[in-house]
Write a sequence for this structure.
């Protein structure tokens, strides 16, 4: 008797409201401890207190299909079928996010397509984080607006198959629902207007630059080609030979730079030896040159002495002749 739906409950989607949950999951919920202890004789008024104690959102988890308190309260709401006003208050509640998630899921299961879009779409502005338990019993974070979007788009939430609802576009065409206005439309329009203004400014700057460039090209005098200008310097044979010579010199220099230091030491030693040999030859040559100069000087003195002696003899002979003649002698 405790698991039966209330007598005055209305059928949902042409069936018993509890049948919206699969039989195997429903059976596991009936057998769990939370259902027997916390959900027994629970009314719509007491449902609020239990909903405020929720800590996470989830369906079943583990290999033995263990139900969570969240899905147990969902099945209890399907069983007692609270009034619509209570569910709307659950959805509009801003203090307890898991109470809102519970009311949103129940509205998605039992409400019409128009009610789902009307009451759930305003929750897109709720960006609070909620904890979700997956089938492995692990927790991960999700935002409330993501959870609402999954309710309107996905086929299964918390291991419950969601009833089908009409597309929003069909309700808009039949004038049952107004076109949805996103809170980001104004921001997007402002961004588009700013981008258009930036594009216009960029085009104006480009056009001004092109005009200035055109005026400069018109004012710039044309240069006549020089008659002495070479047509093709790259194919000149002399230039190629000169380039080869430069390249050969660079290669030789590079090879010299790459030689080891031992070669440099040997080269310095050989250079010193050549300088020393050259210095010895220079000293010998210098001594020979001095000896030749001394020899020449001595020969000059000897010749000068002989010449002086010859002059003295000539003067003496002349004086003897002048004395015989009675004339004055010559001075030496």
């Amino acid at each position: 008797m405790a698991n039966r739906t209330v007598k005055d409950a209305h059928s949902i989607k042409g069936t018993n409201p509890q049948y919206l949950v699969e039989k195997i999951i429903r059976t596991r919920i009936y057998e769990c401890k939370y259902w027997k202890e916390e959900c027994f004789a629970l009314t719509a008024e007491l449902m609020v207190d239990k909903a405020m104690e929720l800590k996470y959102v989830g369906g079943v988890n583990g290999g033995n299909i263990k139900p969570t308190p969240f899905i147990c309260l969902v099945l209890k709401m399907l069983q007692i079928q609270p009034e619509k006003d209570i569910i709307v208050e659950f959805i509009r509640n801003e203090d307890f996010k898991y109470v809102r998630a519970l009311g949103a899921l129940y509205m998605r299961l039992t409400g019409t397509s128009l009610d789902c879009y009307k009451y759930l779409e305003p929750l897109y502005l709720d960006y609070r984080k909620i904890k979700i338990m997956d089938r492995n019993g692990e927790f991960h974070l999700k935002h409330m607006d993501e959870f609402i979007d999954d309710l309107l788009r996905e086929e299964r939430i918390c291991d419950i198959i969601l009833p089908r609802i009409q597309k929003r576009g069909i309700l808009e065409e039949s004038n049952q629902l107004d076109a949805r206005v996103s809170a980001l439309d104004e921001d997007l329009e402002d961004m588009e207007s700013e981008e258009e203004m930036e594009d216009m400014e960029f085009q104006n700057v480009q056009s001004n630059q092109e005009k200035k460039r055109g005026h400069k090209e018109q004012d710039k005098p044309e240069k006549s080609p020089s008659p002495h200008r070479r047509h093709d310097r790259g194919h000149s044979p002399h230039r190629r030979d000169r380039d080869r010579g430069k390249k050969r010199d660079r290669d030789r220099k590079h090879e010299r730079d790459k030689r080891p230091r031992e070669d440099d030491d040997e080269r310095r030693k050989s250079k010193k030896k050549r300088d020393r040999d050259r210095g010895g030859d220079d000293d010998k040559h210098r001594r020979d040159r001095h000896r030749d100069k001394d020899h020449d000087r001595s020969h000059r003195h000897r010749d000068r002495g002989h010449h002086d002696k010859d002059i003295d003899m000539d003067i003496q002979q002349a004086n003897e002749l002048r004395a015989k003649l009675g004339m004055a002698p010559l001075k030496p």
